[in-house]
Amino acid sequence: MSHDGDTRAIERLLLRSHCAMAHARTRRMRGLGIGSAGALALAHLVAEQRLTPVELGRLLRIGAAETATLIELLEQEGFVRRREPVTVGRALLLTPTPLACALLADADPVAPVALEPAAEAALARFVAHAAALTEQAVERALDG
Q1: 103 burial type by CB count under 10 A (0-12 exposed, 13-18 middle, 19+ buried)
Q2: Residue 125 predicted with pLDDT over 80
Q3: Which of 1, 19, 34, 137 could disulfide-link 29, Cβ–Cβ 3.0 to 4.6 Å?
Q4: All domains of the chain, ordered by start, with CATH?
């Protein structure tokens, strides 16, 4: 198989994996009364640990009003905290609560693996590349 064929096959597998995890997370969240936008918002917040409302809206591809409504809901449910900026002129920060982090950790269990430092570094590089490929594939799927 050519390099391009390998890359496309990897992209398809990563996209399938991403979709399966997103589907499982969404089903679990719906059971808690959280819709797909809320589940995706929590996933982004837990991954990034802090985002501005504008950044979150951009990641979710929703407008300011819908973002504000979603933040309000997630805050009322105890999943998000608003952090006032420490300096004047800085944007409000959103952070996930320990409840949100625990919920997402429980929704996406990953078994720990002990690796040698060199293997761990190689795996980290591969996963970073795989994540970039997945993001690109998802963007193409959403835009296409």
Answers
A1: buried
A2: yes
A3: 34
A4: 32-110 (1.10.10.10)
